Amino acid sequence: MEPRTHRVVVLALAGLLPFELGIPHRIFGRAKGPAGRPLYEILTCGLSAGPVPTDADFAIDVEHGPELLATADTVVVPASYELGPVYEHGRLTDELAAALTHIRPGTRLVSICTGGYVLAAAGYLDGRRATTHWASATHFQGLFPRVLVDPDVLYTDEGDVLTSAGVAAGIDLCLHIVRRDHGAAVANEVARRTVVPPHRDGGQAQFTERPVPEPQLASTTSARAWVLERLHEPIRLSDLARQEAVSVRTFTRRFREEAGVSPGEWIVAQRVERARRLLERTELPMEQVARETGFGTAQSLRKHVRAALGVSPTAYRRTFRAGTDSGSPPSSDGPSVGGASAH
After folding, report:
1. Which residues pair with 75 in a beta bridge?
2. What tens digit of pLDDT does each residue of 194-229 get?
3. Residues forming beta bridges with residue 42, ordered by sequence position
4. Are 19 and 167 in contact (CB under 8 A)?
5. Active site residue 174
6. Closest Cα to residue 22, out of 212, 167, 187?
7. Of the listed 77, 86, 112, 113, which one is catalytic?
8. To the nearest whole number, what is the mean pLDDT of the chain?
9. Higher-confidence residue: 158 or 214?
């Protein structure tokens, strides 16, 4: 007997951003199980059935009213530019408050960008970490002092309540949910089909002040591709700079401009990502996982996985295996980047 499909209901509010409304449909709708079975059912509702105005020059015709929220396993609230008293005073309108009463206890709640104002006004974020678009973070915190606002992250995961920063961070959060529900293989396939990076950690900064590099200087792509084929090997900054035919200093500056993190931090993140896939898909011993990912030893693997994921590799494997059906010597160029010796 096949498990029941997880239902995601998206609440469309007046003044919504069409791009953000489409994110849950695009990401969750591409998640497939064995034999191509959809893993999520995605439906949209409004405060009433009928047309919902957007911030663009068209409206969205919504078939369902708020009663649909009672059937949801996950409710997603995208951003809106017409939240009225919710944005101005932190207070739900009577109509919106009545709509939210349909949500069953235990339903997972998700907001994208300023959709977090709705969750906060309803009290769902009290005492919890949350984020929103960086431009609204100070206002958000002032309006909702009981919320633990983190303005510098892409998304937050408090278990049954998750929030994201603006626009593209909503994609990152939805991919994170797919990964949490069904593992890296499913999430990575969704990312490939959507042509977006498979994973950006929630703690990654929004980089609101990071300048965009000049096009002619945006040239670390080849080095990153080179790294991904050699994560199991020691990798040095000089190796990376050599791929782009620039000095180590120039490469490091360009890399940080493009990625927002140092080469070492980026390599560790890629190694953790590969470790996640191996832990989810294989029964390899921890020492072998450490070698395959370039961490060298099981102790180093545990250190980096716990720092990134908050759990040990063994605990991570146990969680996902239970929830689903299924080295070169150092050279003389200096210490390796993104490995145990560098961290």
Report:
1. 9, 109
2. 877 665 555 444 444 433 444 444 468 889 889 999
3. 8
4. yes
5. no
6. 167
7. 113
8. 86
9. 158
Exposed/middle/buried for residue 250 (C-beta within 10 Å: 0-12, 13-18, 19+):
middle
The Cα–Cα gap between 161 and 154 comes to: 15
Beta bridge partners of 129: 148
Cα-Cα-Cα-Cα dihedral sign, residues 84, 85, 89, 90 = negative
Nearest CA to 327 out of 314, 316, 340, 343 is that of 340
Alpha-carbon distance values, 222 to 151, 240, 255, 337, 339 (Å): 32, 9, 11, 17, 20
**β-strands 50-53, 59-62: how paired?**
antiparallel
Q: Choose among 156, 270, 170, 254: nearest CA to 213.
A: 254
> How much is the average pLDDT of 128-145?
94
What tokens does 66 get? Answer: 């708020």
> What is d(CA 35, CA 113) in angstroms, rounded to the nearest whole number?
34
The more confidently predicted of residues 8 and 193 is: 8
pTM for the full predicted model? 0.67
CB atoms within 10 A of CB 80: 27
* 267/77 Cα distance (integer angstroms): 34
The 3-state secondary structure of the chain, one letter per residue = CCCCCEEEEEECCCCECHHHHHHHHHHHHCCECHHHCECEEEEEECCCCEEEEECCCCEEEECECHHHHHHCCEEEECCECCCCHHHHHCCCCHHHHHHHCCCCCCCEEEEEHHHHHHHHHCCCCCCCEECCCHHHHHHHHHHCCCCEECCCCCEEECCCEEEECCCHHHHHHHHHHHHHHHCHHHHHHHHHHHCCCCCCCCCCCCCCCCCCCCHHHCCCHHHHHHHHCCCCCCCCHHHHHHHHCCCHHHHHHHHHHHHCCCHHHHHHHHHHHHHHHHHHHCCCCHHHHHHHHCCCCHHHHHHHHHHHHCCCHHHHHHHHHHHCCCCCCCCCCCCCCCCHHHC
The rounded distance, in Å, linking the Cα atoms of 78 and 164 is 10
